[in-house]
Design brief:
about 500 residues, alpha/beta, Ribosomal Protein S5, domain 2, 2 domains, four-stranded mixed β-sheet, 22 helices, about 15% strand
Length: about 500
Amino acid sequence: MLATISASVLAGITGHPVSVEVHVSSGLPTFTVVGLPDTACREARDRVRAALLSSGVDWPPGRITVNLAPSGIRKEGPGLDLAIAMGVLVADGRLPAEDLVGMAFLAELGLDGRLRAVPGVLPQVRCLDAAEVVVAPESAAEAALARGPAVRAPVSLGELVSVLRGEESWPEPPSPESADPTAKILDLADVKGQHIARLGLEVAAAGGHHLLMIGPPGAGKTMLARRLPGLLPPLDEPTAIEATMVHSAAGLDLPSSGLICRAPWQAPHHSASMIALVGGGSRALRPGAVSCAHGGVLFLDEMGEFAPQALDALRQPLEEGVIRVNRATAVASFPARFLLVGAMNPCPCGELGQPGMCRCTPLARLRYARRLSGPLLDRFDLRIHVGRPEVSDLFDSPSGESSAEVRVRVEQARAAAVERGVVCNSELPDDALDKFAPLDPKARNLFSQAIAEGRLTARGFQRVRRVALTLADLSGHQPPLSGGIVAQALFMRTEPVTVAHDPWSVAHACR
């Protein structure tokens, strides 16, 4: 007898419908899975058999053939276990086929018959054309985000069989918990001093500008970077769905509500390979740290220690906001619109600029500086020097503004960007800058001088112009951009900041 069960598989972060065809016939007892299954998928025969026996269901003694259609798509992982088990029961006459019409099944089976969660449930449910979908209880909240099929979440295979036979009713899926927007947010008020660096974080958050912090060890670069997500506004619904799909496909933990509402944070170790950063793999294409930071912050601590090849792989997603991974057997696209924050020492020992402290040779400094290529460095809109705080800042300085206070200005600046038709100023197209960020004569002269001296490329000119627009939004200035605002934007990109406790003093001095 033949049975066909609906399911789906994951390729990258995209779900693909799969028909699980099970044929049970007389003959020598065998179990064969065809249709491009991987090792984990072929091992379903042992999990399904043990789960059925543990649930009090006899295993068919004949020949069982399972076809995973379409056969041209590679099937990976244990997510088809439950569909195969249902197909075996229907094909063997243990369940009526009409009771499973319009149903799909996505779960791994434990040897005791328990349903277990699998990665990528959200994109897999979104691709299904079914009225009901059966998943593990841990995946119920995530599956409900698809807003499509009705979600059923039995605990075990035995409970599912009892429901389908009419012996029990469907259990209520676990109710999703509401996310706490204030949980685990590090406060910017904890930072003592570092007025320019604090302004850099605010500008980066308000305009979506990439930030590079250079300073000696212990200056507080990592402490500052960890407080950047708390300045970002909540994710809009499309970005939240995309971020949730990426995290689900990557097998990362999701919040109890199922939906990622706050800006994600990714901080890979400097030994990470290029594939670990951008995604991919030899067989299963999985998102990398860049995609997992979609909608949030990618922090590269000790950036000078990353492999140059891995760093240069970031150049394309920084411009396009998407990563296209091409392999001989598969192609996948991952969203990758993130805020890049880098932190590095001025030299390998970190003491460059401290009289008599630096132990690095000129050649070592040159090699260290070459880790960041010119094209990558040009994509950092903000380059801030973070010095060690003064003793008076640590002991006598009052607490600065909290993250909540700064976030109000960030949201106002982003609201101004939305009125211009973009999410943040860094996404403004070049042809829109003349309309929204015109320059007064003094600002034009400052840009002309910087370009003539080789301190700015054509791309850098447009990027600094967007930073100046963000500074104007934060300070309440109206276009055209003044020379003071442009001077401050240039100062935060091309000069090491070693003075000015007042973050706006440079702008006032240039007016």
